[in-house]
Amino acid sequence: MTTPAAAHKARRLAEREKRIVAAARALAEEQGWEAVTTRRLSDAIGYSQPVLYSHFPEGRSQIVTAVALDGMVELAGAMVATTAPDRARPGAECVRALVTSYLDFADRHPATYEAMFRLPIGVPFASADTPRPLRDAFEAIVAALRGLDRPPADLETAAEVLWGAVHGVATLERAARFSPGNQERRVAELVRHFVD
Amino acid sequence: MTTPAAAHKARRLAEREKRIVAAARALAEEQGWEAVTTRRLSDAIGYSQPVLYSHFPEGRSQIVTAVALDGMVELAGAMVATTAPDRARPGAECVRALVTSYLDFADRHPATYEAMFRLPIGVPFASADTPRPLRDAFEAIVAALRGLDRPPADLETAAEVLWGAVHGVATLERAARFSPGNQERRVAELVRHFVD
DNA sequence: CTACGTTTTCTAGCATTGCTAGATTTTTGC
DNA sequence: GCAAAAATCTAGCAATGCTAGAAAACGTAG
Questions:
Q1: Which domains does chain A show, CATH number per domain?
Q2: Is the ipTM beyond the 0.95 threshold?
Q3: In chain A, which among 52-71 make CB contacts under 8 A with chain B?
Q4: Where is the HTH-type transcriptional regulator MT1864/Rv1816-like C-terminal domain (chains A, B) (predicted)?
Q5: A57: CB within 7 A of chain D nucleic strand
Q6: pLDDT means per 10 residues in chain A (196 residues)?
């Protein structure tokens, strides 16, 4: 039952849905999440508010979630690319690159990153129904740790702690809780502790 | 010009201000910050909304800040008590106790903790105009690290990173991003990385 | 005790928010 | 070309943070 007309319509709908998510993300990055209102979003895509709800029945929160999922795909992509076997690095360098790419993402897309972790999705990194990209990112950390000269005994726990540590540093950096301009030294210190 | 009547009035005002902050904190811990509305707060203290603004001219955000400041005093108190010289511990145990008391606070007062770090107060831990309790807590971490067998070269940076790591673990734990029930193992892993 | 002036408090309302029911327009299928 | 169906819009609700102006309570002087 996929007539050309129906296919065309489906494509237009998917297109519009992407525009909604893109508009939400752009607005959030430019003016913060509190500026992402349903009225502004509907203005941005040139439709009225109820159209948003035809795409996202749960409303605003579901749109934020969509942005978060996009962000997870990007972050996981960056992290997996960092640990790709073709650019083989010694174990410690691999961990460092991973941490750097993570912090880089959080720094360049603060609102998106905020959505990814403020959300109470309540799903562990390594569970069965974890969003695929999140799980990929977690596995990238596990792989990097496994490549160390002296890998930790409990890889999963170590990966969770490393993720937590990097996440905390990213958060406090963003909140300007750290002394300004010492980010590189902090990264070095953080990596030093985990590659030991 | 401190007549008894004026003093009494000042005391009553201070009392009411405390009730506002306490009500906000209780409501946030019970139902989350989105449930902390000016109407509910004024109901809780038995006055109308404008009374809130006579105490906190900047409105709701200033009340949240007051809760955050209270939390910082408590957290700093717990951390400083942990590192008190009377209960002298070996360096590593001191760091472990510090981390544990920190995570314990975040776990028992999640909404208060959220206010403390979601706020864009934009003040570093170790700056001149940092809230006193935050600075005390930071110094407690520095002191604990200094007491290690092999203290890190750059104490301030190491303390920032340790704070960030613990903060990240606290946040992800709260967001249920970690595998359930392994908190103790994570704490052990975290401490292990920072004490040697 | 009264009457006035000050201070405190409340009532009522504004603009904005997320969201939705019902009317209206557009598209579809024959 | 026309009726059924789908898509979209208009208009509105309840709740939010916040505030101006009315009302009440208070303090002080006579």
A1: 1-57 (1.10.10), 67-195 (1.10.357.10)
A2: no
A3: none
A4: 95-193
A5: no
A6: 63 95 98 97 98 97 96 97 75 94 98 91 78 95 95 96 98 92 96 92
